[in-house]
Amino acid sequence: MCCLPAVFILRRRRQLFYLQNFSEIEFLKKEMGTDERNFRSSYYEKVGCHSVEEKKSLNKLLQDNIRNHAKLKQFCLSYTVPSTTRSLLWNIILGVMPLHKNSTEYIMEQRKAVYDDLLRAVTVMQFISATTPKSKVLLSMWQLEQNRLLYSNNEKNDLDNNFVEIVKVLLQIFENDVETYWLAKEFYSCTREIAQECVKLKELSQNLLRKEDANLCNHLENLAVFSSNDLLDKWYVTGFAGVISESTLVRVWDKICGGSRKIVVFIFLELAKVLKGSALKCHTRQEFKTLVEQIKDQDAVIVNKAIKNWQNNKQHSEITVH
């Protein structure tokens, strides 16, 4: 039996490779129809090239004269937001900037005028000085806008504390103080929706953890982690501000900006599971709080895994606890 020449064998393998990939491409084309752009996106996704097409899609959405609010929110929910476009994306989604691109300059001028007026007012009223921390400055401006400034010193409440926690994170992420103030206000409004659902979110946290680790769940129940109002409520309503490092936390806040409320549940679940060994040794709720708030997750391992688990749990509607 004669052996086929090596050149012929290599040529045949190359032909088979081309035929295999050609068939795959033709199959994808049939799936996607005649839309060449959708075909490319599907094929790139199939071979693992996500980022380029995602960035192109986002850039197109942002460049539209009238931005599609629903699609921008969906992008936040579905993909990792590029750091270079996060500021613009959040501003549009949260309503700081208008959907109509041509109105952006005028609207931002009005935003700055309001900011300057508030800053001037709290300065003249001597509620702030040149040495006042910027987070306290923005808090005073926010309190004035809500007609609570004159009473705030005597009535320090959770609303103010939560707002400050959010401001501190945003000050580490963005450089423009005007945008930071407006983003803080609007993001705080998003967290108020989480606050309204805290009972259901804690119930969901408890149920999911019990399914995954009954022993850990029982221990945290004994510490009153789920029944108290001073722990999970605080973490959920502030989106884990002060718990997770700012560079990592933005990935969680991307999802909150996109409309997710239950993402905070999966962040907690992952934190609890990662810290299980130490958590089981905690004798008080305060010890558990201290343990969790020391982790920071600088490398985003916990957050990335939590986001993946959240995406895999589509059977849970976003608000209603089943």
TrEMBL record:
It comes from Glossina brevipalpis. PROSITE patterns: TBC_RABGAP. Residues 80-260 form the Rab-GAP TBC domain. Non-catalytic component of the TSC-TBC complex, a multiprotein complex that acts as a negative regulator of the canonical mTORC1 complex, an evolutionarily conserved central nutrient sensor that stimulates anabolic reactions and macromolecule biosynthesis to promote cellular biomass generation and growth. The TSC-TBC complex acts as a GTPase-activating protein (GAP) for the small GTPase RHEB, a direct activator of the protein kinase activity of mTORC1. The lineage of its organism: Eukaryota, Metazoa, Ecdysozoa, Arthropoda, Hexapoda. Keywords: Cytoplasm, Cytoplasmic vesicle, GTPase activation, Lysosome, Membrane. This is TBC1 domain family member 7. It comes from the Eukaryota. The keyword Transmembrane helix does not apply. One of its GO terms (biological process) is negative regulation of TOR signaling. It holds the Pfam family RabGAP-TBC. It is found in: Cytoplasm, Cytosol; Cytoplasmic vesicle; Lysosome membrane. GO terms for molecular function: GTPase activator activity. Its main location: cytoplasm. InterPro entries: Rab-GAP-TBC_dom, Rab-GAP_TBC_sf, TBC1D7, TBC1D7_dom2. GO terms for cellular component: cytoplasmic vesicle; cytosol; lysosomal membrane.
